[in-house]
Predict the 3D structure of the following.
Amino acid sequence: MDIEILEGIYDANEKVARENYTLFRGSGVLAMNLMASPGAGKTSLIAHTLELLKGRRKVGVIEGDIASSVDAEKLKTYDIPVIQINTGGICHLDATMIQQAIAQMDLDALDLLIIENVGNLVCPAEFKLGESLRAMILSVAEGHDKPLKYPLMFSDSDVLVVNKTDLIGMGDFDMAELRDTVTRMNPDIIIFEVSCRTGEGLSAWVDWLDARIGEFKEG
């Protein structure tokens, strides 16, 4: 019975996710589901991305948190549309939450919609939102063995942003080992090494994202 109920939840979510994808596709909006552990640097990466895309692309953000609107308030200073979703204890966003949020947005006025998921490396990987791009962040402080503990997140993402590279050398983090582990799990994944503190690597990340937006619009 429990398995049947869980399958029903996933099936219902997939249906709404397909509806969201169709809406995004029709509006020419690349939707990116950004996932990470708490403290990995999701909001910081979004802020830098907004700064570097200014004048190039029109961006909106859906901010997912269990509680509070602290991160959403920070991002509103960039004069972009931001919708806050508080899940009230649920450890992930789902497609219905996104459907309700985008009803409050003018998708035709956007090129990119960044969906910052709840900080968690388990549940968010299991729920599609209608996105065309699944991205995740791993901070150096979390260790290079994280993919072995949370394989679904790494095997199901299109891109991995390794943040806080300025901390390399202060511990036993091994970038080569991380890359080897992740690419064995997911040969097609694209990996960026960045530091939101120093700015290292951010231009390469944003240029790649900008190109992906262009490819998506060309369809």
